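TA notes. Do not distribute before section.
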Amino acid sequence: MISVGIVEDHPIFRSGLVQLLHDTHDVEVTAVCRSLEEFATIPDPLPHVVLLDLHLPGLEGAAGVRYVRGRGPRVLVVSASSTSQEVVDALIAGAGGYLLKTVEGPDLLQALKVIATGATYVTPTLAGCLLTASHAMPTLELTDRERDVLILLAQGERDLDIAEELGISVRTVHSYLDRIRDKIGKRRRVDLARWAQDKGLTRDPSR
């Protein structure tokens, strides 16, 4: 038996989901909420999987996915829109699948059961969004020295300090930074530093 939570603010669509799941013999609806604020009041044990609308009052989007995953349940996004950025952000945040609200009942149930096992449910639409996003993104393969430069920048070091730390010239530091900017698509130092921090880049103590 798969326990399922629903977080959806549209009453008609929410009722339709409840009815669909109630008619499924191996699925049990254990939580029905209009917002993540309401979901936050649900006591343990939490559902195995949460059907989540991305566009909710208050906490929404990828932040909403991260919140639900942080409490434990797996997430199946069921949204009215599916821009490439929304799909990618939701998956990075931990969603196990992404469906449009035009989905047929059997397809939603299939996705739900796949995600309940811990796997990711990939539809042709989802795969297309990921492919589009991957073509649009610059390469993120940094060399070891580029990583060193970026890490020191994220630690607040000036270009002169980076040069002295790595035993290279300031001109070479500028060259590395230009390459890093081209690869990750960000220009400002603060954005470079934030990107490095988000990726968890740290110095290898053995180097």
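Switch to the second chain here.
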Amino acid sequence: MSNIVLACAQYTAEPGDIEANIAKHAHFARMGWEHGAEVILFPELSLTGYELELARECAISPYDPVLEPLVELSSETGLTIIAGCPIESDSSKPYLGALIFQPVQETMVYRKMYIHSSEEDYFISGKEPMVFDCTGEFVGVAICYDISHEFHAAAVKRLGCTVYMAGVMETPEGIEEARIRMSMHASEGSMVTALANYGNSTGGLEGGGKSAVWDEEGDIVASAEPNGDALVLVNKFGDQCDGMVLEV
């Protein structure tokens, strides 16, 4: 089995300001890299905040020059960065996406497969699961409501997933159910699972925080507080994990 150091960023977004949020991503990413992280996960729509009303005007191409700082940072550090953003489509509505920046590679895109009913007026859904290689581990990407569907976790598992990472926007009322599901996916799929949530308000909703990582038995390795910015770091070595949480 391979070793990998995972990071989950629990942070505060500037509404609709992609450039400002890229700077915040860079701050978290560098902190994670300084502590040995090889992949860092951000919450759902992290580059814009969970601002549904702004989704159409904020939608960008995965190759937009505004993203170049994250492309360069990934190549400079060797860190894989998973960030959320509305992604342009051929429809009148964008995809709700995750951008995966890897060193010296073309930016990859995961398009959320399971759109929540509250998001249907603003986004269209994607059709394909995503799993990518990161230092010998196979990372499956999920976005929020995806984790409520067993088919999604099963689909990435069939593709060889060993680490299942979900960027979410969960309120204090919703985060406990999300954590139960991530623990279940970990134990049923024998996968390490990781969740990054907002710890402050975004899009008129209060983020529930509690970003966390679970081991293959479904036990929590490290978990952030319900409020505020934090960085969850977990070292997966073989079938063992240990972790810590840093204030940001």
